[in-house]
Design brief:
By secondary structure, the chain is an alpha/beta fold. The protein contains six helices and nine strands; from the N terminus they run ααββαβαβαββαβββ. The protein binds S-adenosyl-L-homocysteine. The site of S-adenosyl-L-homocysteine (SAH) has 24 residues, from β2, α4 and β4. S-adenosyl-L-homocysteine binds next to β2, α4 and β4.
Protein backbone atom coordinates (compact mmCIF):
# COMPACT_ATOMS: atom_id res chain seq x y z
CA UNK A 1 0.00 0.00 0.00
CA UNK A 2 2.87 2.39 -0.74
CA UNK A 3 1.73 5.97 -0.96
CA UNK A 4 -1.53 5.28 0.83
CA UNK A 5 -0.26 5.08 4.36
CA UNK A 6 -1.66 8.47 5.40
CA UNK A 7 -4.49 9.06 7.86
CA UNK A 8 -6.17 5.65 7.62
CA UNK A 9 -8.83 6.82 5.20
CA UNK A 10 -8.97 3.36 3.66
CA UNK A 11 -9.93 1.92 7.04
CA UNK A 12 -12.96 4.15 7.40
CA UNK A 13 -14.24 3.72 3.86
CA UNK A 14 -17.58 2.33 2.80
CA UNK A 15 -15.86 -0.87 1.69
CA UNK A 16 -14.67 -1.54 5.24
CA UNK A 17 -18.15 -0.83 6.56
CA UNK A 18 -19.65 -3.21 4.01
CA UNK A 19 -17.30 -5.93 5.24
CA UNK A 20 -18.62 -5.41 8.77
CA UNK A 21 -22.21 -5.64 7.50
CA UNK A 22 -21.41 -8.95 5.79
CA UNK A 23 -19.83 -10.30 8.95
CA UNK A 24 -22.91 -9.35 11.01
CA UNK A 25 -25.11 -11.07 8.46
CA UNK A 26 -22.95 -14.22 8.67
CA UNK A 27 -23.22 -14.11 12.49
CA UNK A 28 -27.01 -14.26 12.25
CA UNK A 29 -28.30 -10.68 11.86
CA UNK A 30 -30.98 -11.26 9.25
CA UNK A 31 -33.13 -8.09 9.43
CA UNK A 32 -32.28 -6.04 6.34
CA UNK A 33 -33.45 -2.83 8.04
CA UNK A 34 -30.84 -3.31 10.77
CA UNK A 35 -28.07 -4.12 8.28
CA UNK A 36 -29.04 -1.07 6.22
CA UNK A 37 -28.92 1.19 9.31
CA UNK A 38 -25.41 -0.08 10.11
CA UNK A 39 -24.37 0.33 6.48
CA UNK A 40 -25.48 3.99 6.58
CA UNK A 41 -24.02 4.96 9.96
CA UNK A 42 -20.33 5.93 10.01
CA UNK A 43 -19.16 4.33 13.29
CA UNK A 44 -15.72 5.94 12.94
CA UNK A 45 -17.30 9.31 13.74
CA UNK A 46 -18.38 8.01 17.17
CA UNK A 47 -14.88 7.23 18.48
CA UNK A 48 -11.71 9.21 18.98
CA UNK A 49 -9.70 9.83 15.82
CA UNK A 50 -6.75 7.95 17.33
CA UNK A 51 -8.71 4.67 17.20
CA UNK A 52 -11.02 5.38 14.28
CA UNK A 53 -9.11 2.93 12.06
CA UNK A 54 -10.54 0.16 14.29
CA UNK A 55 -14.13 1.38 14.05
CA UNK A 56 -15.28 -1.37 11.67
CA UNK A 57 -13.87 -4.23 13.68
CA UNK A 58 -16.59 -6.14 15.47
CA UNK A 59 -15.40 -5.10 18.93
CA UNK A 60 -16.30 -2.70 21.72
CA UNK A 61 -13.93 0.31 21.89
CA UNK A 62 -13.12 2.85 24.64
CA UNK A 63 -14.90 6.23 24.49
CA UNK A 64 -13.34 7.82 27.58
CA UNK A 65 -14.44 8.05 31.24
CA UNK A 66 -14.09 4.27 31.52
CA UNK A 67 -17.02 3.70 29.12
CA UNK A 68 -17.25 1.86 25.79
CA UNK A 69 -19.07 1.96 22.47
CA UNK A 70 -20.76 -1.46 22.23
CA UNK A 71 -19.66 -4.22 19.88
CA UNK A 72 -21.50 -3.83 16.52
CA UNK A 73 -22.88 -7.38 16.75
CA UNK A 74 -24.48 -6.57 20.12
CA UNK A 75 -25.88 -3.27 18.78
CA UNK A 76 -27.36 -5.15 15.82
CA UNK A 77 -28.78 -7.94 17.98
CA UNK A 78 -30.43 -5.49 20.41
CA UNK A 79 -31.83 -3.41 17.57
CA UNK A 80 -33.22 -6.49 15.87
CA UNK A 81 -34.77 -7.56 19.18
CA UNK A 82 -36.80 -4.35 19.62
CA UNK A 83 -37.94 -4.03 16.00
CA UNK A 84 -41.39 -5.28 15.15
CA UNK A 85 -42.92 -5.44 11.70
CA UNK A 86 -43.21 -1.71 11.15
CA UNK A 87 -41.34 1.43 11.99
CA UNK A 88 -40.97 2.28 15.67
CA UNK A 89 -42.66 5.35 17.13
CA UNK A 90 -40.97 6.51 20.33
CA UNK A 91 -37.85 4.79 21.63
CA UNK A 92 -36.02 5.33 24.92
CA UNK A 93 -32.34 4.48 25.39
CA UNK A 94 -30.55 4.47 28.75
CA UNK A 95 -26.80 5.09 28.36
CA UNK A 96 -26.13 7.35 25.35
CA UNK A 97 -22.35 6.86 25.54
CA UNK A 98 -20.93 7.70 22.12
CA UNK A 99 -24.41 8.00 20.59
CA UNK A 100 -23.86 5.21 18.06
CA UNK A 101 -26.77 3.01 19.19
CA UNK A 102 -29.08 6.04 19.27
CA UNK A 103 -28.02 6.97 15.72
CA UNK A 104 -28.88 3.46 14.53
CA UNK A 105 -32.27 3.65 16.27
CA UNK A 106 -32.92 7.09 14.79
CA UNK A 107 -33.07 5.50 11.32
CA UNK A 108 -35.74 3.05 12.42
CA UNK A 109 -37.90 5.17 14.74
CA UNK A 110 -39.77 8.45 14.63
CA UNK A 111 -38.16 9.78 17.82
CA UNK A 112 -35.32 8.57 20.01
CA UNK A 113 -34.97 9.79 23.61
CA UNK A 114 -31.62 8.98 25.16
CA UNK A 115 -30.19 9.71 28.61
CA UNK A 116 -26.58 9.69 29.81
CA UNK A 117 -25.38 10.19 33.40
CA UNK A 118 -21.91 11.53 32.44
CA UNK A 119 -22.29 15.15 31.28
CA UNK A 120 -19.17 15.16 29.12
CA UNK A 121 -20.32 12.12 27.10
CA UNK A 122 -23.86 13.48 26.76
CA UNK A 123 -22.54 16.77 25.36
CA UNK A 124 -20.26 15.20 22.78
CA UNK A 125 -22.97 12.79 21.64
CA UNK A 126 -25.37 15.72 21.24
CA UNK A 127 -22.80 17.55 19.09
CA UNK A 128 -22.38 14.47 16.91
CA UNK A 129 -26.14 14.17 16.34
CA UNK A 130 -26.25 17.84 15.41
CA UNK A 131 -23.32 17.60 12.98
CA UNK A 132 -24.77 14.47 11.37
CA UNK A 133 -28.19 16.06 10.97
CA UNK A 134 -29.92 13.51 13.21
CA UNK A 135 -32.71 15.80 14.36
CA UNK A 136 -35.02 13.13 15.78
CA UNK A 137 -32.75 12.31 18.73
CA UNK A 138 -33.43 14.05 22.06
CA UNK A 139 -30.72 13.82 24.71
CA UNK A 140 -30.64 14.51 28.42
CA UNK A 141 -27.94 14.58 31.05
CA UNK A 142 -29.96 12.52 33.50
CA UNK A 143 -30.05 9.32 35.51
CA UNK A 144 -31.80 6.78 33.33
CA UNK A 145 -33.03 4.84 36.37
CA UNK A 146 -36.04 7.15 36.29
CA UNK A 147 -36.69 6.58 32.59
CA UNK A 148 -38.19 9.64 30.87
CA UNK A 149 -41.70 9.89 32.38
CA UNK A 150 -42.90 12.96 30.45
CA UNK A 151 -42.41 11.14 27.11
CA UNK A 152 -43.77 7.73 28.15
CA UNK A 153 -45.07 5.32 27.00
CA UNK A 154 -42.37 4.02 24.63
CA UNK A 155 -42.65 1.43 21.86
CA UNK A 156 -39.16 0.26 22.67
CA UNK A 157 -36.73 0.74 25.56
CA UNK A 158 -33.08 -0.19 25.33
CA UNK A 159 -30.72 -0.24 28.30
CA UNK A 160 -27.06 -0.25 27.27
CA UNK A 161 -25.51 -0.66 30.74
CA UNK A 162 -25.77 -3.77 32.89
CA UNK A 163 -27.65 -4.12 36.17
CA UNK A 164 -31.06 -4.63 37.67
CA UNK A 165 -33.79 -3.29 35.39
CA UNK A 166 -35.56 -0.41 37.22
CA UNK A 167 -39.34 -0.74 37.74
CA UNK A 168 -39.83 2.68 36.14
CA UNK A 169 -38.77 1.24 32.77
CA UNK A 170 -41.37 -1.54 32.92
CA UNK A 171 -43.98 1.09 33.75
CA UNK A 172 -42.98 3.31 30.81
CA UNK A 173 -43.23 0.53 28.21
CA UNK A 174 -46.29 0.70 25.93
CA UNK A 175 -48.48 -2.37 25.46
CA UNK A 176 -46.95 -4.29 22.56
CA UNK A 177 -43.63 -2.60 23.32
CA UNK A 178 -40.30 -4.33 23.86
CA UNK A 179 -37.57 -3.66 26.42
CA UNK A 180 -34.08 -5.06 25.88
CA UNK A 181 -31.48 -4.92 28.64
CA UNK A 182 -28.37 -6.67 29.98
CA UNK A 183 -29.53 -7.94 33.36
CA UNK A 184 -27.17 -8.93 36.14
CA UNK A 185 -27.10 -12.70 36.46
CA UNK A 186 -24.37 -13.28 39.06
CA UNK A 187 -20.92 -13.46 37.45
CA UNK A 188 -22.16 -12.32 34.04
CA UNK A 189 -25.05 -10.45 32.41
CA UNK A 190 -27.91 -11.98 30.51
CA UNK A 191 -29.41 -10.00 27.64
CA UNK A 192 -33.17 -10.13 28.13
CA UNK A 193 -36.03 -9.21 25.83
CA UNK A 194 -39.22 -8.28 27.65
CA UNK A 195 -42.43 -7.72 25.74
CA UNK A 196 -45.43 -6.07 27.34
CA UNK A 197 -48.61 -7.83 26.31
CA UNK A 198 -52.22 -7.52 27.47
CA UNK A 199 -51.46 -10.42 29.86
CA UNK A 200 -48.32 -8.92 31.38
CA UNK A 201 -44.58 -9.10 30.68
CA UNK A 202 -43.14 -11.94 28.61
CA UNK A 203 -39.45 -12.59 29.13
CA UNK A 204 -36.95 -14.21 26.80
CA UNK A 205 -33.18 -14.66 27.25
CA UNK A 206 -30.97 -13.80 24.29
CA UNK A 207 -27.56 -14.82 25.62
CA UNK A 208 -24.66 -13.78 27.87
CA UNK A 209 -23.19 -10.32 27.31
CA UNK A 210 -20.77 -7.94 28.98
CA UNK A 211 -21.65 -4.26 29.47
CA UNK A 212 -20.32 -1.48 31.68
CA UNK A 213 -22.43 -1.16 34.87
CA UNK A 214 -25.69 0.76 35.20
CA UNK A 215 -24.88 3.33 37.90
CA UNK A 216 -26.94 5.77 39.95
CA UNK A 217 -26.48 9.55 40.07
CA UNK A 218 -24.81 12.07 37.81
CA UNK A 219 -21.22 12.89 36.91
N1 LIG B 1 -25.16 2.97 23.85
C1 LIG B 1 -23.79 3.40 23.99
C2 LIG B 1 -23.02 2.45 24.90
C3 LIG B 1 -22.44 3.24 26.01
S1 LIG B 1 -21.80 2.36 27.40
C4 LIG B 1 -23.11 3.59 22.64
O1 LIG B 1 -23.73 3.28 21.62
O2 LIG B 1 -21.99 4.10 22.59
C5 LIG B 1 -23.08 2.66 28.59
C6 LIG B 1 -23.30 4.09 28.99
O3 LIG B 1 -24.33 4.07 29.99
C7 LIG B 1 -22.11 4.80 29.62
O4 LIG B 1 -21.82 5.95 28.91
C8 LIG B 1 -22.58 5.11 31.04
O5 LIG B 1 -22.11 6.35 31.54
C9 LIG B 1 -24.10 5.13 30.89
N2 LIG B 1 -24.89 4.89 32.09
C10 LIG B 1 -24.65 4.02 33.10
N3 LIG B 1 -25.63 4.10 34.04
C11 LIG B 1 -26.51 5.05 33.61
C12 LIG B 1 -27.72 5.60 34.14
N4 LIG B 1 -28.24 5.20 35.33
N5 LIG B 1 -28.35 6.56 33.44
C13 LIG B 1 -27.85 7.00 32.25
N6 LIG B 1 -26.71 6.52 31.71
C14 LIG B 1 -26.04 5.56 32.37
Amino acid sequence: MAGRAHSGIGMTSEGTRERLVRRLHDKGISDERVLEAIRNTPRHLFVDEAISSRAYEDTALPIGRGQTISQPFVVAMMTQAVLGEGRLGKVLEIGTGSGYQAAILARLADKVFTTERIGELQRSARQRFHRMGLHNIYTRHADGMEGWPSQAPFDAIMVTAGGRIPDSLYEQLAEGGVLVAPEDAGPYQQLVRIERTARGFEREELGAVSFVPLLQGLE
